[in-house]
From TrEMBL:
<keyword id="KW-0223">Dioxygenase</keyword>
<protein>
    <submittedName>
        <fullName>Protocatechuate 3,4-dioxygenase subunit beta</fullName>
    </submittedName>
</protein>
<feature type="domain" description="Extradiol ring-cleavage dioxygenase class III enzyme subunit B">
    <location>
        <begin position="8"/>
        <end position="270"/>
    </location>
</feature>
<keyword id="KW-0560">Oxidoreductase</keyword>
<dbReference type="GO" id="GO:0016702">
    <property type="term" value="F:oxidoreductase activity, acting on single donors with incorporation of molecular oxygen, incorporation of two atoms of oxygen"/>
</dbReference>
<dbReference type="Pfam" id="PF02900">
    <property type="entry name" value="LigB"/>
</dbReference>
<dbReference type="GO" id="GO:0008198">
    <property type="term" value="F:ferrous iron binding"/>
</dbReference>
<dbReference type="InterPro" id="IPR004183">
    <property type="entry name" value="Xdiol_dOase_suB"/>
</dbReference>
Length: 292
């Protein structure tokens, strides 16, 4: 059967993609961020997952406010990467596995998650910004992607608990798929940041680090927080943390945190964390933490 071997939490700000495309990996302001992804890419190269399943949010690119679903699943063999104003990127279309995507969709609907489905739509920086930092792409991506978009833009938003339960349902869906696939679940979005209003530039590193510890060890506690709690603690855009909870819900109770890089850059806490299912982790491995 298909199985989940680990998870990744990552920022997805569009400037990461712009900096990557412009070859700014060695610039002093960007180097700490890009260096932080190298152990993650190495881990993925070693584990060779067949699928990256993304919980992310669309930024009015694939979807729009006149019809913006709570949860949406992409089904298709290929998804173009959106031009978000900086020009077309030199990346191949994102690959999909229709049979696996359709199975996930049917399983979630049967668990009473009322999904929307999209096809032939471009995917924006919610996935495309971190993806080339995780996987090589020449001449093509080494595996397929399952894109699951979560509404964190237009209220009412799904609760933190609902997103966590979505992740749990996704795990059951994956494990009921008969083919032998290795899956890594990715939750994207910023930790503390606010990019508009009176608190523009707000960050809360203490909260960010507490969130990461609690996400690993006691995620149920985070499901009790309201959207107002997340906004108060981390800024308006930090409500994206509920997508990390969806990722965590898809993982087992016992995890090994293999790598963490936290880099506070301008207005956003740029973070990438890798978790491995405990039964798949090497005995005695130590968590690698890089805090720049």
């Amino acid at each position: 059967m298909a199985r989940i071997i680990g998870g990744i939490g990552t920022s997805h700000v569009p400037t990461i993609g712009v900096a990557y495309d412009k070859g700014r990996q060695e610039d002093p302001v960007w180097a700490p961020l890009f260096e932080g992804y190298k152990p993650v890419a190495k881990w993925l190269a070693e584990k060779q997952p067949d699928v990256l399943l993304f919980f992310y949010n669309d930024h009015a690119t694939t979807l729009f406010f006149d019809l913006y679903p709570t949860f949406a699943l992409g089904v298709g063999e290929r998804f173009p990467i959106a031009d978000e104003g900086a020009g077309l990127r030199g990346l191949p279309d994102i690959r999909g596995d229709v049979d696996f995507q359709a199975h996930i969709g049917e399983a979630l609907v049967n668990e009473e998650f009322d999904l929307a489905f999209f096809q032939n739509k471009p995917i924006d920086h919610g996935i495309a910004s971190p993806l080339p930092l995780l996987w090589p792409h020449e001449p093509d991506w080494p595996g397929t992607v399952v894109p699951i978009a979560i509404n964190v833009l237009q209220y009412p938003l799904p609760t933190a608990r609902r997103c966590y339960r979505l992740g749990q349902a996704v795990r059951r869906a994956v494990e009921s798929y008969p083919e032998d696939l290795k899956v890594v679940v990715v939750g994207t979005g910023g930790l503390s940041h606010q990019i508009h209003g009176e608190r523009t530039g707000f960050n809360n590193t203490e909260w960010d680090l507490d969130f990461l510890e609690t996400l690993r060890d006691d995620p149920e506690r985070l499901t009790q927080l309201t959207h107002a709690d997340y906004v108060r603690l981390g800024g308006a855009e930090s409500v994206e943390q509920i997508m990390w909870l969806a990722m965590r819900g898809a993982l087992g109770a016992s995890l090994e945190e293999m790598h963490r890089n936290y880099y506070l850059m301008t207005t956003t806490a740029m973070t990438v964390v890798t978790y491995e299912e405990r039964e798949n982790a090497a005995v005695g491995s130590q968590r690698e933490r890089e805090v720049a």
